[in-house]
Amino acid sequence: xxxxxxxxxxxxxxxxxxxxxxxxxxxxxxxxxxxxxxxxxxxxxxxxxxxxxxxxxxxxxxxxxxxxxxxxxxxxxxxxxxxxxxxxxxxxxxxxxxxxxxxxxxxxxxxxxxxxxxxxxxxxxxxxxxxxxxxxxxxxxxxxxxxxxxxxxxxxxxxxxxxxxxxxxxxxxxxxxxxxxxxxxxxxxxxxxxxxxxxxxxxxxxxxxxxxxxxxxxxxxxxxxxxxxxxxxxxxxxxxxxxxxxx
Length: 247
Hints:
Strand content: 25-35%
Distance between the termini: 46 Å
Radius of gyration: 17 Å
Shape: globular
């Protein structure tokens, strides 16, 4: 059976947050944990989310080395730490964040499956995306998606960002990668590495979100008020300054 056939028969559940307001990035990280620990939907789960301007760095990173903290505070860009590894990313309302929760298994196999699902879904939309040998989804030589994964007891959580458009000035100023990292990729600036989906497709942003959901998920679970309350309890850890900026 080909991979594309696997996608079409994937009985993933879309976890829907039935409210109109945009929450802090910390809530969606907590929502991943809540889904993994407490929701039993009988299969893989997936959801998408958007946030006001934010940066999010990996569990092992030192914030001061990765983030222009003064710039972020001056421009109202929130800063968060996640529990997966990987690098620092910038997110805003012009891109979409992806969350995939699945049963425990090989982390490498899970990550490969997640990357294949997203890549093939984009291919189905006529977008010539491919995954590289790290954690990126590329169009040509430009990165349109960075991803990471981590393990909880009994579950794996993979997540990433999918760039449609973004405030490039904020992205360039808020994140401060080392010169060595830039040189590793053979480019002179972050901007040369970053691609935006809007430059490779005529599909509106809303259509890409809708098609991703339709392509990957066959059913929906709506978060209840109790689900949201319990997610907010988990969120408190992600909002703790000691967690965010601790070494």
